[in-house]
Amino acid sequence: MLGWTTAYIKVLLRRMNLFKIIVWEMALGVPAFFLASIFLESGPYHLTLPGAISLAYQSLGITVVGFVLWAYVLKQSPVARFTSFFFLTPLLGIVLSYITLGEPVTPQLSLGALLVAGGIYLANR
């Protein structure tokens, strides 16, 4: 399914604006996951201000920026070589968390990021 979706989005990128595709993906995906969480998750829901800020940061800061970069690279690359770039999202999360929140980058996190980056490099050389 992921391969089919990636190939379809590549076709859409020829006809549509990148920003429109990202907005539509978010506009359709967010409500769908919200509804699914109502039926599939249990427990009390207490959204606090820090929780809302964290959710907005994850949604807008990491996901949107990651998808924009992902779509830009997809537009420039063959689909078969491109799929490994999905793994840029966690790397972007590490970098943005360090820059914006001052989160520590531990040796284990650095090693994991290096292994992911190495895998992306090896898959695309």
Provide an overview of this structure.
There is one protein chain. The two termini are 25 Å apart. This protein has one domain. Helices cover 80% and strands 0% of the residues. The protein is mainly α and 125 residues long. It has 6 helices and no strands. The model has no long low-confidence stretch (mean pLDDT 83).
**Beta-strand proportion:** under 5%
Helix content: over 70%
| Poorly predicted segments | none
The SSE order reads HHHHHH
Largest sheet at a glance?
none
Q: What's the total helix number?
A: 6
Radius of gyration: 17 Å
Find the structural class using helix and strand composition.
mainly alpha
Terminal CA distance reads: 25 Å
The number of distinct structural domains comes to: 1
The overall average pLDDT, rounded, is 83
* Global morphology: globular
* Count of β-strands: 0
Name the features.
0% strand, 6 helices, 125 residues
Task: Please summarize what this structure is.
This protein is an all-alpha fold and 125 residues long. The protein has six helices and no strands.
Which secondary structure elements does this structure contain, and how are they paired or packed?
Blueprint: H1 2-15, H2 18-40, H3 49-76, H4 79-82, H5 88-101, H6 107-123
